[in-house]
Amino acid sequence: MPVLEWGKWHFDPADYPLLRQIQAGQGEILAQSFMGETRFYLDYLKLDTLDACTFPDPEEAIVFIGLTRFLVHELLKLTGILAASIEVQTIIGAPASPVGTMDVADALFSLTLQFVIAHEVGHYVCGHVVDRALHFEFSGPAHRPVNLRRHADEVDADAYAILELCRNLLDGDSGSAIVELLPPGGIYGDDQLAALLVISVTAIFLLHLSQPRRDLNLAKDKHPPLAYRYHLVIEIIQHWLKSHDKSAAAVTGEGLHAIIQAVSDALPTDLRPRWNAQIDVMESPAGKAYLDALDQMIRTRLGNASEEGSET
Hints:
Elements: H1 17-33, E1 39-45, E2 52-57, E3 62-68, H2 69-83, H3 86-91, H4 103-125, E4 138-139, E5 145-146, H5 148-170, H6 177-181, H7 190-209, H8 226-243, H9 253-266, H10 272-283, H11 285-311
Parallel strand pairs: 1-3
Antiparallel strand pairs: 2-3, 4-5
């Protein structure tokens, strides 16, 4: 396997059997989920941004999902470091892996990619990709518009993705895409799988937070604050586990703190100033007004969805 260095993306996905496996199998798995009515095609884009995208073609009944090679590369690097971490091995209850094996690394990497892919599918399922026009529906004190609709779209897609992973990974469905991609021969109980899931999700959000960027700007950013999104995703996992009578030890209190610390230690950037800066913005008067408006939009969407469901 090629040596990975932070910040690189000029690599060939063909060098990684797991990438080929995910690309080959993902379209079929998704098509089965949608009863064959829609085809999906996944590819790795030659771009140097940490990003993913979704483009539907209604005429061909196909949805294209693209993951940038930079994103894939950085996740490969990060999950490899995490898999070799004594802290992570302790958290998931796994023995130290023999030199040269990639079992835990493959599991973590598979889950990170599954979350990203499910997030993009969530945009399609929720109808976000039909109309990407900007809808400015909230103005802060400086009278600069915030694209609340797009921010709510990201929250929708996050929720769809994490619920899909919870159902597939933690409900014991051996035919699900997630379980099929986990290394064969592994024995993963609910606690270990929950820990793997939370580590993977934490890796995605903190990796994004580690990237060079300007300061958080609620009026211009295309996505909600990463700290806000991460908090919501963890809340969804906690609620799902409790509602299904499963242990939430891996995602609460000291368990969650240990995961955040382990992922932070694996990244080459001190994330505390950036995380604290996001919290400061969200706790400001403008930030609180933004979060209130975003929360109201999300609640309205949930109410509309419930009404539509009751009519069908």
